[in-house]
Prior knowledge:
- Two copies of one chain form a homodimer.
- The first copy, chain A, is an all-alpha fold.
- The first copy, chain A, has two domains: 3-81, Homeodomain-like (Arc Repressor Mutant, subunit A, Orthogonal Bundle); 89-226, Orthogonal Bundle (Tetracycline Repressor, domain 2).
- Chain A is 71% helix and 0% strand.
- Chain A has twelve helices and no strands.
- Chain A has helices at 3-14, 25-45, 48-55, 60-66, 69-87, 100-116, 123-133, 139-161, 168-187, 189-195, 203-226, 239-246.
- In chain A, helix 2 runs parallel beside helix 7 and helix 6 runs antiparallel to helix 11 (203-226).
- The termini of chain A are far apart.
- The interface between A and B is large, with 83 and 83 residues.
- Chain A binds a DNA duplex through helix 1 and helix 4.
Amino acid sequence: MCLKLVLNMAVATLRTEGTGPSFGATRQALLEAAADVFTRVGFRQATIREICQRAGANVAAINYHFGDKAGLYSEVLTTEGELAQRRFPAEAGVSKQASPEARLTAFIRSFLQRVLAEDLANRHGRMMAREMVEPTAALDRLVREVIQPQANLLATIVRALLPPGTDQTTARLCGLSIVGQILFYAHCRPVITRLEPRRAYDLVELDRLTSHITRFSLAALREFSRRPDSPALGVRRAASSRRAIRSKR
Amino acid sequence: MCLKLVLNMAVATLRTEGTGPSFGATRQALLEAAADVFTRVGFRQATIREICQRAGANVAAINYHFGDKAGLYSEVLTTEGELAQRRFPAEAGVSKQASPEARLTAFIRSFLQRVLAEDLANRHGRMMAREMVEPTAALDRLVREVIQPQANLLATIVRALLPPGTDQTTARLCGLSIVGQILFYAHCRPVITRLEPRRAYDLVELDRLTSHITRFSLAALREFSRRPDSPALGVRRAASSRRAIRSKR
DNA sequence: TGACAGTTCAAACATGTGTTTGAAACTCGT
DNA sequence: ACGAGTTTCAAACACATGTTTGAACTGTCA
Protein backbone atom coordinates (compact mmCIF):
# COMPACT_ATOMS: atom_id res chain seq x y z
CA MET A 1 0.00 0.00 0.00
CA CYS A 2 2.26 2.74 -1.20
CA LEU A 3 0.75 6.18 -0.95
CA LYS A 4 2.44 7.36 -4.09
CA LEU A 5 0.84 4.69 -6.23
CA VAL A 6 -2.58 5.22 -4.73
CA LEU A 7 -2.29 8.87 -5.65
CA ASN A 8 -1.16 7.95 -9.12
CA MET A 9 -4.20 5.80 -9.53
CA ALA A 10 -6.51 8.52 -8.26
CA VAL A 11 -5.09 10.99 -10.74
CA ALA A 12 -5.22 8.48 -13.58
CA THR A 13 -8.82 7.73 -12.77
CA LEU A 14 -9.83 11.38 -12.69
CA ARG A 15 -8.43 12.11 -16.07
CA THR A 16 -10.07 9.10 -17.65
CA GLU A 17 -11.15 11.22 -20.60
CA GLY A 18 -8.39 13.75 -20.19
CA THR A 19 -5.87 14.95 -22.64
CA GLY A 20 -2.98 12.79 -21.51
CA PRO A 21 -0.66 11.18 -24.01
CA SER A 22 -2.44 8.69 -26.25
CA PHE A 23 -5.69 9.46 -24.47
CA GLY A 24 -5.33 6.69 -21.90
CA ALA A 25 -4.92 4.01 -24.53
CA THR A 26 -3.29 1.58 -22.14
CA ARG A 27 -5.98 2.13 -19.59
CA GLN A 28 -8.62 1.49 -22.21
CA ALA A 29 -6.88 -1.61 -23.52
CA LEU A 30 -6.67 -2.94 -19.98
CA LEU A 31 -10.39 -2.43 -19.39
CA GLU A 32 -11.15 -4.17 -22.65
CA ALA A 33 -8.89 -7.15 -22.03
CA ALA A 34 -9.97 -7.43 -18.42
CA ALA A 35 -13.64 -7.51 -19.38
CA ASP A 36 -12.93 -10.42 -21.69
CA VAL A 37 -10.92 -12.40 -19.19
CA PHE A 38 -13.24 -11.71 -16.25
CA THR A 39 -16.31 -12.84 -18.19
CA ARG A 40 -14.54 -15.95 -19.32
CA VAL A 41 -12.99 -17.22 -16.10
CA GLY A 42 -14.24 -14.99 -13.29
CA PHE A 43 -12.45 -12.73 -10.87
CA ARG A 44 -10.44 -15.25 -8.90
CA GLN A 45 -9.28 -17.36 -11.82
CA ALA A 46 -8.29 -14.35 -13.86
CA THR A 47 -4.63 -13.45 -13.66
CA ILE A 48 -3.32 -9.96 -14.15
CA ARG A 49 -0.56 -11.40 -16.27
CA GLU A 50 -3.00 -12.71 -18.86
CA ILE A 51 -4.96 -9.47 -18.84
CA CYS A 52 -1.83 -7.40 -19.32
CA GLN A 53 -0.52 -9.65 -22.04
CA ARG A 54 -3.77 -9.32 -23.98
CA ALA A 55 -3.70 -5.56 -23.49
CA GLY A 56 -0.08 -5.40 -24.55
CA ALA A 57 0.78 -3.76 -21.28
CA ASN A 58 3.20 -4.34 -18.46
CA VAL A 59 2.05 -6.18 -15.34
CA ALA A 60 2.62 -3.04 -13.30
CA ALA A 61 0.11 -1.16 -15.44
CA ILE A 62 -2.90 -2.49 -13.54
CA ASN A 63 -1.58 -1.31 -10.22
CA TYR A 64 -0.66 2.01 -11.73
CA HIS A 65 -4.03 2.67 -13.34
CA PHE A 66 -6.45 0.95 -11.00
CA GLY A 67 -4.66 0.47 -7.70
CA ASP A 68 -5.07 -3.29 -7.65
CA LYS A 69 -6.86 -6.20 -9.27
CA ALA A 70 -10.06 -5.58 -7.34
CA GLY A 71 -10.05 -1.96 -8.45
CA LEU A 72 -9.79 -3.02 -12.07
CA TYR A 73 -12.62 -5.51 -11.60
CA SER A 74 -14.85 -2.91 -10.02
CA GLU A 75 -14.14 -0.48 -12.82
CA VAL A 76 -14.89 -3.10 -15.48
CA LEU A 77 -18.14 -3.90 -13.75
CA THR A 78 -19.39 -0.33 -13.76
CA THR A 79 -18.19 0.33 -17.29
CA GLU A 80 -19.92 -2.76 -18.63
CA GLY A 81 -22.96 -1.98 -16.50
CA GLU A 82 -23.45 1.41 -18.10
CA LEU A 83 -22.97 -0.17 -21.49
CA ALA A 84 -25.53 -2.87 -20.79
CA GLN A 85 -28.06 -0.37 -19.54
CA ARG A 86 -27.92 1.36 -22.91
CA ARG A 87 -28.04 -1.91 -24.85
CA PHE A 88 -30.87 -3.59 -22.96
CA PRO A 89 -33.27 -0.96 -21.68
CA ALA A 90 -35.03 -2.04 -18.52
CA GLU A 91 -38.35 -3.05 -20.03
CA ALA A 92 -37.09 -3.73 -23.51
CA GLY A 93 -39.10 -0.91 -24.99
CA VAL A 94 -42.47 -1.93 -23.59
CA SER A 95 -44.24 0.90 -21.84
CA LYS A 96 -45.73 0.72 -18.37
CA GLN A 97 -49.13 1.10 -19.93
CA ALA A 98 -48.80 -2.21 -21.75
CA SER A 99 -50.63 -5.27 -20.49
CA PRO A 100 -48.97 -7.20 -17.67
CA GLU A 101 -48.63 -10.17 -20.00
CA ALA A 102 -46.71 -8.11 -22.53
CA ARG A 103 -44.57 -6.63 -19.80
CA LEU A 104 -43.73 -10.07 -18.42
CA THR A 105 -42.82 -11.29 -21.88
CA ALA A 106 -40.53 -8.32 -22.38
CA PHE A 107 -38.96 -8.83 -18.98
CA ILE A 108 -38.23 -12.48 -19.63
CA ARG A 109 -36.84 -11.88 -23.08
CA SER A 110 -34.64 -9.06 -21.94
CA PHE A 111 -33.37 -11.06 -18.98
CA LEU A 112 -32.63 -14.10 -21.12
CA GLN A 113 -30.79 -11.96 -23.62
CA ARG A 114 -28.64 -10.42 -20.97
CA VAL A 115 -27.80 -13.76 -19.51
CA LEU A 116 -27.45 -15.98 -22.55
CA ALA A 117 -25.88 -14.01 -25.35
CA GLU A 118 -22.17 -14.68 -25.51
CA ASP A 119 -21.71 -11.40 -27.15
CA LEU A 120 -19.36 -8.53 -26.72
CA ALA A 121 -22.26 -6.34 -25.78
CA ASN A 122 -23.26 -8.75 -23.11
CA ARG A 123 -20.33 -9.23 -20.82
CA HIS A 124 -22.11 -7.54 -17.98
CA GLY A 125 -24.85 -10.12 -17.85
CA ARG A 126 -22.37 -12.94 -17.66
CA MET A 127 -20.36 -11.21 -15.00
CA MET A 128 -23.52 -10.68 -12.99
CA ALA A 129 -24.47 -14.33 -13.33
CA ARG A 130 -21.08 -15.25 -11.98
CA GLU A 131 -21.29 -12.81 -9.09
CA MET A 132 -24.53 -14.44 -7.95
CA VAL A 133 -22.90 -17.80 -7.62
CA GLU A 134 -19.38 -16.92 -6.66
CA PRO A 135 -19.65 -13.49 -5.06
CA THR A 136 -16.83 -11.01 -4.65
CA ALA A 137 -16.81 -7.84 -2.58
CA ALA A 138 -18.66 -6.17 -5.45
CA LEU A 139 -21.87 -8.14 -4.95
CA ASP A 140 -23.33 -5.88 -2.27
CA ARG A 141 -23.20 -2.92 -4.58
CA LEU A 142 -24.61 -4.94 -7.47
CA VAL A 143 -27.55 -6.16 -5.43
CA ARG A 144 -28.34 -2.59 -4.43
CA GLU A 145 -27.94 -1.01 -7.84
CA VAL A 146 -28.90 -3.71 -10.32
CA ILE A 147 -30.66 -6.69 -8.82
CA GLN A 148 -32.98 -4.98 -6.36
CA PRO A 149 -34.50 -2.68 -9.00
CA GLN A 150 -35.03 -5.63 -11.32
CA ALA A 151 -36.66 -7.58 -8.50
CA ASN A 152 -38.98 -4.68 -7.79
CA LEU A 153 -39.94 -4.40 -11.44
CA LEU A 154 -40.72 -8.08 -11.66
CA ALA A 155 -42.69 -7.89 -8.43
CA THR A 156 -45.03 -5.22 -9.78
CA ILE A 157 -45.58 -7.15 -12.98
CA VAL A 158 -46.33 -10.36 -11.12
CA ARG A 159 -48.70 -8.65 -8.72
CA ALA A 160 -50.61 -7.28 -11.67
CA LEU A 161 -51.07 -10.83 -12.92
CA LEU A 162 -52.31 -12.20 -9.61
CA PRO A 163 -55.63 -11.49 -7.91
CA PRO A 164 -55.58 -8.32 -5.77
CA GLY A 165 -55.82 -10.17 -2.47
CA THR A 166 -52.82 -12.44 -3.02
CA ASP A 167 -50.51 -12.55 -0.03
CA GLN A 168 -47.07 -11.13 -0.42
CA THR A 169 -45.20 -14.39 0.12
CA THR A 170 -46.96 -16.07 -2.77
CA ALA A 171 -46.25 -13.16 -5.09
CA ARG A 172 -42.61 -13.17 -4.06
CA LEU A 173 -42.24 -16.90 -4.63
CA CYS A 174 -43.83 -16.59 -8.06
CA GLY A 175 -41.25 -13.99 -8.97
CA LEU A 176 -38.47 -16.27 -7.84
CA SER A 177 -39.93 -19.15 -9.83
CA ILE A 178 -39.72 -17.04 -12.96
CA VAL A 179 -36.22 -15.80 -12.29
CA GLY A 180 -35.11 -19.32 -11.45
CA GLN A 181 -36.21 -20.66 -14.80
CA ILE A 182 -34.21 -17.99 -16.56
CA LEU A 183 -31.03 -18.11 -14.52
CA PHE A 184 -30.91 -21.88 -14.84
CA TYR A 185 -29.67 -21.46 -18.39
CA ALA A 186 -26.99 -19.08 -17.24
CA HIS A 187 -25.70 -21.10 -14.32
CA CYS A 188 -26.04 -24.68 -15.48
CA ARG A 189 -24.64 -24.29 -18.94
CA PRO A 190 -21.86 -26.82 -18.30
CA VAL A 191 -24.45 -29.44 -17.42
CA ILE A 192 -26.84 -28.57 -20.22
CA THR A 193 -24.17 -28.81 -22.88
CA ARG A 194 -23.20 -32.22 -21.55
CA LEU A 195 -26.78 -33.44 -21.52
CA GLU A 196 -27.48 -32.11 -25.01
CA PRO A 197 -24.22 -31.52 -26.82
CA ARG A 198 -25.96 -30.72 -30.08
CA ARG A 199 -28.13 -27.83 -29.02
CA ALA A 200 -26.70 -24.42 -29.86
CA TYR A 201 -27.75 -21.36 -27.95
CA ASP A 202 -28.40 -19.04 -30.83
CA LEU A 203 -31.13 -16.53 -31.53
CA VAL A 204 -33.62 -19.20 -32.51
CA GLU A 205 -33.10 -20.93 -29.20
CA LEU A 206 -33.42 -17.62 -27.37
CA ASP A 207 -36.82 -17.15 -28.96
CA ARG A 208 -37.82 -20.68 -28.08
CA LEU A 209 -36.81 -20.23 -24.47
CA THR A 210 -38.48 -16.85 -24.15
CA SER A 211 -41.63 -18.31 -25.55
CA HIS A 212 -41.56 -21.34 -23.32
CA ILE A 213 -40.75 -19.64 -20.04
CA THR A 214 -43.35 -16.98 -20.69
CA ARG A 215 -45.97 -19.56 -21.51
CA PHE A 216 -45.07 -21.75 -18.54
CA SER A 217 -45.11 -18.84 -16.10
CA LEU A 218 -48.27 -17.19 -17.40
CA ALA A 219 -50.03 -20.52 -17.29
CA ALA A 220 -49.03 -21.01 -13.68
CA LEU A 221 -50.06 -17.50 -12.69
CA ARG A 222 -53.41 -17.90 -14.43
CA GLU A 223 -54.14 -21.06 -12.50
CA PHE A 224 -53.06 -19.32 -9.29
CA SER A 225 -55.65 -16.66 -10.07
CA ARG A 226 -58.31 -19.20 -10.81
CA ARG A 227 -58.10 -21.00 -7.47
CA PRO A 228 -56.30 -18.58 -5.16
CA ASP A 229 -55.64 -20.98 -2.32
CA SER A 230 -55.71 -24.44 -3.77
CA PRO A 231 -53.88 -26.60 -1.30
CA ALA A 232 -51.16 -27.54 -3.73
CA LEU A 233 -51.24 -31.28 -4.13
CA GLY A 234 -48.94 -33.10 -1.82
CA VAL A 235 -48.00 -30.55 0.75
CA ARG A 236 -48.05 -33.34 3.28
CA ARG A 237 -44.90 -32.55 5.18
CA ALA A 238 -43.81 -36.09 5.75
CA ALA A 239 -42.48 -36.86 9.18
CA SER A 240 -40.01 -39.19 7.54
CA SER A 241 -38.28 -36.39 5.69
CA ARG A 242 -38.14 -34.36 8.84
CA ARG A 243 -36.19 -37.18 10.29
CA ALA A 244 -34.00 -37.66 7.26
CA ILE A 245 -32.89 -34.09 6.98
CA ARG A 246 -31.70 -33.93 10.54
CA SER A 247 -29.93 -37.23 10.79
CA LYS A 248 -26.22 -37.20 11.22
CA ARG A 249 -24.13 -39.59 9.23
CA MET B 1 4.70 -38.06 -10.66
CA CYS B 2 6.77 -40.48 -8.68
CA LEU B 3 5.98 -44.09 -9.38
CA LYS B 4 6.65 -45.11 -5.85
CA LEU B 5 4.03 -42.79 -4.44
CA VAL B 6 1.46 -43.78 -6.98
CA LEU B 7 1.96 -47.37 -5.94
CA ASN B 8 1.69 -46.38 -2.30
CA MET B 9 -1.59 -44.76 -3.03
CA ALA B 10 -2.89 -47.76 -4.91
CA VAL B 11 -2.04 -50.02 -2.04
CA ALA B 12 -3.50 -47.64 0.50
CA THR B 13 -6.69 -47.45 -1.52
CA LEU B 14 -7.03 -51.18 -1.80
CA ARG B 15 -6.77 -51.76 1.88
CA THR B 16 -9.30 -49.09 2.69
CA GLU B 17 -11.00 -51.41 5.18
CA GLY B 18 -7.91 -53.41 5.84
CA THR B 19 -6.27 -54.34 9.07
CA GLY B 20 -3.45 -51.81 8.99
CA PRO B 21 -2.45 -49.94 12.11
CA SER B 22 -5.22 -47.71 13.38
CA PHE B 23 -7.48 -48.99 10.61
CA GLY B 24 -6.77 -46.15 8.20
CA ALA B 25 -7.71 -43.50 10.73
CA THR B 26 -5.73 -40.78 8.98
CA ARG B 27 -7.26 -41.64 5.66
CA GLN B 28 -10.71 -41.48 7.18
CA ALA B 29 -10.01 -38.19 8.94
CA LEU B 30 -8.77 -36.75 5.67
CA LEU B 31 -11.94 -37.77 3.85
CA GLU B 32 -14.06 -36.26 6.58
CA ALA B 33 -12.18 -32.96 6.73
CA ALA B 34 -11.96 -32.74 2.95
CA ALA B 35 -15.71 -33.21 2.58
CA ASP B 36 -16.28 -30.30 4.93
CA VAL B 37 -13.84 -27.98 3.24
CA PHE B 38 -14.85 -28.91 -0.31
CA THR B 39 -18.53 -28.30 0.40
CA ARG B 40 -17.75 -24.98 2.00
CA VAL B 41 -15.36 -23.42 -0.51
CA GLY B 42 -15.23 -25.71 -3.53
CA PHE B 43 -12.38 -27.62 -5.08
CA ARG B 44 -10.21 -24.80 -6.30
CA GLN B 45 -10.46 -22.61 -3.21
CA ALA B 46 -9.81 -25.51 -0.89
CA THR B 47 -6.21 -25.86 0.24
CA ILE B 48 -4.70 -29.13 1.23
CA ARG B 49 -3.07 -27.37 4.15
CA GLU B 50 -6.43 -26.50 5.68
CA ILE B 51 -7.76 -29.98 5.07
CA CYS B 52 -4.73 -31.59 6.64
CA GLN B 53 -4.80 -29.27 9.60
CA ARG B 54 -8.42 -30.13 10.28
CA ALA B 55 -7.65 -33.80 9.94
CA GLY B 56 -4.64 -33.47 12.21
CA ALA B 57 -2.47 -34.90 9.46
CA ASN B 58 0.69 -33.89 7.66
CA VAL B 59 0.45 -32.14 4.30
CA ALA B 60 2.13 -35.09 2.65
CA ALA B 61 -0.66 -37.38 3.82
CA ILE B 62 -2.98 -36.46 0.97
CA ASN B 63 -0.43 -37.32 -1.67
CA TYR B 64 0.39 -40.52 0.15
CA HIS B 65 -3.18 -41.72 0.50
CA PHE B 66 -4.88 -40.28 -2.57
CA GLY B 67 -2.15 -39.44 -5.04
CA ASP B 68 -3.06 -35.78 -5.33
CA LYS B 69 -5.70 -33.22 -4.50
CA ALA B 70 -7.92 -34.24 -7.40
CA GLY B 71 -7.77 -37.85 -6.28
CA LEU B 72 -8.95 -36.87 -2.83
CA TYR B 73 -11.76 -34.81 -4.31
CA SER B 74 -12.90 -37.66 -6.50
CA GLU B 75 -12.86 -40.04 -3.56
CA VAL B 76 -14.86 -37.63 -1.41
CA LEU B 77 -17.39 -37.24 -4.19
CA THR B 78 -18.04 -40.95 -4.53
CA THR B 79 -18.08 -41.54 -0.79
CA GLU B 80 -20.59 -38.76 -0.22
CA GLY B 81 -22.53 -39.91 -3.25
CA GLU B 82 -23.07 -43.36 -1.84
CA LEU B 83 -24.06 -41.83 1.47
CA ALA B 84 -26.56 -39.50 -0.16
CA GLN B 85 -28.11 -42.31 -2.15
CA ARG B 86 -28.93 -44.08 1.07
CA ARG B 87 -30.19 -40.89 2.77
CA PHE B 88 -32.38 -39.59 -0.03
CA PRO B 89 -33.81 -42.49 -2.00
CA ALA B 90 -34.46 -41.56 -5.60
CA GLU B 91 -38.20 -41.07 -5.41
CA ALA B 92 -38.39 -40.31 -1.72
CA GLY B 93 -40.37 -43.43 -0.96
CA VAL B 94 -43.15 -42.85 -3.49
CA SER B 95 -43.79 -45.85 -5.68
CA LYS B 96 -43.95 -45.79 -9.45
CA GLN B 97 -47.61 -46.68 -9.19
CA ALA B 98 -48.43 -43.43 -7.45
CA SER B 99 -50.10 -40.61 -9.35
CA PRO B 100 -47.83 -38.41 -11.45
CA GLU B 101 -48.77 -35.48 -9.21
CA ALA B 102 -47.59 -37.32 -6.12
CA ARG B 103 -44.44 -38.41 -7.89
CA LEU B 104 -43.65 -34.86 -8.95
CA THR B 105 -44.20 -33.60 -5.43
CA ALA B 106 -41.86 -36.24 -4.08
CA PHE B 107 -39.26 -35.42 -6.72
CA ILE B 108 -39.33 -31.72 -5.94
CA ARG B 109 -39.17 -32.20 -2.19
CA SER B 110 -36.33 -34.68 -2.43
CA PHE B 111 -34.40 -32.43 -4.80
CA LEU B 112 -34.89 -29.38 -2.62
CA GLN B 113 -33.77 -31.31 0.42
CA ARG B 114 -30.63 -32.48 -1.27
CA VAL B 115 -29.80 -29.02 -2.42
CA LEU B 116 -30.84 -26.84 0.50
CA ALA B 117 -30.08 -28.64 3.70
CA GLU B 118 -26.79 -27.45 5.12
CA ASP B 119 -26.50 -30.67 6.91
CA LEU B 120 -23.74 -33.15 7.42
CA ALA B 121 -25.80 -35.72 5.58
CA ASN B 122 -26.13 -33.39 2.66
CA ARG B 123 -22.68 -32.47 1.55
CA HIS B 124 -23.10 -34.34 -1.72
CA GLY B 125 -25.96 -32.15 -2.83
CA ARG B 126 -24.00 -29.02 -2.22
CA MET B 127 -20.95 -30.37 -3.97
CA MET B 128 -23.12 -31.29 -6.95
CA ALA B 129 -24.60 -27.81 -7.03
CA ARG B 130 -21.13 -26.39 -7.14
CA GLU B 131 -19.99 -28.76 -9.87
CA MET B 132 -22.82 -27.57 -12.09
CA VAL B 133 -21.66 -23.99 -11.92
CA GLU B 134 -17.93 -24.36 -11.56
CA PRO B 135 -17.12 -27.73 -13.07
CA THR B 136 -14.04 -29.79 -12.40
CA ALA B 137 -12.84 -32.86 -14.26
CA ALA B 138 -15.32 -34.86 -12.18
CA LEU B 139 -18.41 -33.35 -13.83
CA ASP B 140 -18.50 -35.70 -16.79
CA ARG B 141 -18.77 -38.69 -14.51
CA LEU B 142 -21.38 -36.96 -12.35
CA VAL B 143 -23.55 -36.11 -15.33
CA ARG B 144 -23.44 -39.72 -16.43
CA GLU B 145 -24.03 -41.34 -13.07
CA VAL B 146 -26.17 -38.86 -11.15
CA ILE B 147 -27.70 -36.11 -13.25
CA GLN B 148 -28.74 -38.05 -16.32
CA PRO B 149 -30.76 -40.62 -14.34
CA GLN B 150 -32.46 -37.83 -12.41
CA ALA B 151 -33.26 -36.06 -15.67
CA ASN B 152 -34.76 -39.24 -17.08
CA LEU B 153 -36.89 -39.75 -13.99
CA LEU B 154 -38.21 -36.21 -14.16
CA ALA B 155 -38.86 -36.59 -17.87
CA THR B 156 -41.11 -39.60 -17.38
CA ILE B 157 -43.03 -37.84 -14.61
CA VAL B 158 -43.52 -34.72 -16.70
CA ARG B 159 -44.63 -36.68 -19.74
CA ALA B 160 -47.25 -38.39 -17.62
CA LEU B 161 -48.61 -34.97 -16.72
CA LEU B 162 -48.78 -33.70 -20.28
CA PRO B 163 -51.15 -34.82 -23.03
CA PRO B 164 -49.92 -37.87 -24.93
CA GLY B 165 -49.23 -35.98 -28.14
CA THR B 166 -46.97 -33.35 -26.63
CA ASP B 167 -43.80 -32.84 -28.61
CA GLN B 168 -40.55 -33.77 -27.00
CA THR B 169 -39.09 -30.27 -26.92
CA THR B 170 -41.96 -28.94 -24.88
CA ALA B 171 -41.71 -31.78 -22.41
CA ARG B 172 -37.99 -31.24 -22.08
CA LEU B 173 -38.38 -27.52 -21.51
CA CYS B 174 -41.01 -28.14 -18.84
CA GLY B 175 -38.58 -30.37 -17.00
CA LEU B 176 -35.93 -27.70 -17.15
CA SER B 177 -38.39 -25.11 -15.88
CA ILE B 178 -39.00 -27.25 -12.82
CA VAL B 179 -35.35 -27.97 -12.18
CA GLY B 180 -34.51 -24.31 -12.67
CA GLN B 181 -36.92 -23.22 -9.96
CA ILE B 182 -35.31 -25.63 -7.54
CA LEU B 183 -31.66 -25.00 -8.31
CA PHE B 184 -32.19 -21.28 -8.09
CA TYR B 185 -32.24 -21.61 -4.32
CA ALA B 186 -29.02 -23.54 -4.38
CA HIS B 187 -27.07 -21.31 -6.71
CA CYS B 188 -28.30 -17.84 -5.84
CA ARG B 189 -28.18 -18.10 -2.10
CA PRO B 190 -25.72 -15.20 -1.81
CA VAL B 191 -28.18 -12.95 -3.61
CA ILE B 192 -31.26 -14.20 -1.79
CA THR B 193 -29.76 -13.65 1.63
CA ARG B 194 -28.86 -10.10 0.63
CA LEU B 195 -32.34 -9.40 -0.70
CA GLU B 196 -34.03 -10.89 2.36
CA PRO B 197 -31.55 -11.08 5.20
CA ARG B 198 -34.18 -12.21 7.67
CA ARG B 199 -35.41 -15.33 5.99
CA ALA B 200 -33.92 -18.51 7.37
CA TYR B 201 -33.76 -21.65 5.28
CA ASP B 202 -35.06 -24.11 7.83
CA LEU B 203 -37.50 -26.98 7.59
CA VAL B 204 -40.53 -24.72 7.56
CA GLU B 205 -39.12 -22.86 4.58
CA LEU B 206 -38.32 -26.15 2.86
CA ASP B 207 -41.96 -27.13 3.17
CA ARG B 208 -43.08 -23.76 1.90
CA LEU B 209 -40.79 -23.98 -1.12
CA THR B 210 -41.76 -27.55 -1.92
CA SER B 211 -45.38 -26.58 -1.75
CA HIS B 212 -44.97 -23.50 -3.90
CA ILE B 213 -42.81 -24.99 -6.62
CA THR B 214 -45.08 -28.01 -6.87
CA ARG B 215 -48.16 -25.84 -7.08
CA PHE B 216 -46.58 -23.48 -9.61
CA SER B 217 -45.36 -26.29 -11.83
CA LEU B 218 -48.50 -28.39 -11.68
CA ALA B 219 -50.56 -25.34 -12.50
CA ALA B 220 -48.42 -24.64 -15.53
CA LEU B 221 -48.55 -28.23 -16.74
CA ARG B 222 -52.32 -28.33 -16.31
CA GLU B 223 -52.74 -25.25 -18.46
CA PHE B 224 -50.38 -26.74 -21.03
CA SER B 225 -52.66 -29.74 -21.18
CA ARG B 226 -55.74 -27.61 -21.49
CA ARG B 227 -54.60 -25.71 -24.59
CA PRO B 228 -51.82 -27.76 -26.07
CA ASP B 229 -50.52 -25.20 -28.53
CA SER B 230 -51.56 -21.84 -27.26
CA PRO B 231 -49.33 -19.36 -28.99
CA ALA B 232 -47.73 -18.11 -25.82
CA LEU B 233 -48.45 -14.43 -25.62
CA GLY B 234 -45.75 -12.24 -26.99
CA VAL B 235 -43.61 -14.56 -29.02
CA ARG B 236 -43.13 -11.71 -31.44
CA ARG B 237 -39.43 -11.93 -32.08
CA ALA B 238 -38.76 -8.24 -32.24
CA ALA B 239 -36.40 -7.16 -34.97
CA SER B 240 -35.02 -4.62 -32.56
CA SER B 241 -33.73 -7.26 -30.21
CA ARG B 242 -32.21 -9.14 -33.07
CA ARG B 243 -30.24 -6.06 -33.76
CA ALA B 244 -29.38 -5.41 -30.17
CA ILE B 245 -27.99 -8.83 -29.46
CA ARG B 246 -25.62 -8.72 -32.38
CA SER B 247 -24.34 -5.18 -32.09
CA LYS B 248 -20.74 -4.68 -31.21
CA ARG B 249 -19.84 -2.04 -28.70
C1' DT C 1 15.84 -58.58 19.19
C1' DG C 2 15.99 -57.23 14.41
C1' DA C 3 14.50 -56.79 9.78
C1' DC C 4 10.69 -55.19 7.23
C1' DA C 5 6.62 -52.88 5.23
C1' DG C 6 3.58 -49.29 6.12
C1' DT C 7 2.94 -44.68 7.78
C1' DT C 8 4.03 -40.02 9.38
C1' DC C 9 6.79 -35.99 9.55
C1' DA C 10 9.50 -31.49 8.92
C1' DA C 11 11.54 -29.45 5.45
C1' DA C 12 12.30 -28.19 0.95
C1' DC C 13 10.98 -27.63 -3.88
C1' DA C 14 8.59 -25.70 -7.92
C1' DT C 15 5.47 -22.82 -9.55
C1' DG C 16 1.97 -19.27 -9.94
C1' DT C 17 0.38 -14.83 -8.65
C1' DG C 18 -0.50 -9.97 -6.77
C1' DT C 19 2.29 -6.29 -5.83
C1' DT C 20 6.20 -3.07 -5.57
C1' DT C 21 10.37 -0.72 -7.08
C1' DG C 22 13.50 2.40 -9.26
C1' DA C 23 14.96 3.62 -13.48
C1' DA C 24 14.06 4.56 -18.28
C1' DA C 25 11.00 6.47 -21.83
C1' DC C 26 7.79 9.57 -23.15
C1' DT C 27 4.81 13.98 -23.57
C1' DC C 28 4.12 18.59 -23.50
C1' DG C 29 4.49 23.44 -22.17
C1' DT C 30 8.00 26.70 -22.02
C1' DA D 1 16.08 21.92 -26.39
C1' DC D 2 15.06 21.69 -21.57
C1' DG D 3 12.70 19.88 -17.57
C1' DA D 4 8.68 18.62 -14.86
C1' DG D 5 5.11 15.55 -14.84
C1' DT D 6 3.34 11.22 -16.54
C1' DT D 7 3.63 6.59 -18.13
C1' DT D 8 5.99 2.25 -19.07
C1' DC D 9 9.17 -1.34 -18.15
C1' DA D 10 12.11 -5.36 -16.47
C1' DA D 11 13.09 -7.13 -12.43
C1' DA D 12 12.37 -8.42 -7.97
C1' DC D 13 9.59 -9.29 -3.86
C1' DA D 14 6.38 -11.68 -0.86
C1' DC D 15 3.50 -15.04 -0.31
C1' DA D 16 0.40 -19.05 -1.15
C1' DT D 17 -0.04 -23.64 -2.68
C1' DG D 18 0.53 -28.46 -4.69
C1' DT D 19 4.00 -31.67 -4.52
C1' DT D 20 8.19 -34.27 -3.32
C1' DT D 21 11.89 -36.02 -0.44
C1' DG D 22 14.42 -38.65 2.79
C1' DA D 23 14.52 -39.59 7.38
C1' DA D 24 12.07 -41.01 11.52
C1' DC D 25 8.56 -43.63 13.58
C1' DT D 26 5.28 -47.73 14.28
C1' DG D 27 3.68 -52.09 14.49
C1' DT D 28 4.25 -57.08 12.93
C1' DC D 29 6.44 -61.28 12.28
C1' DA D 30 10.43 -64.34 12.40
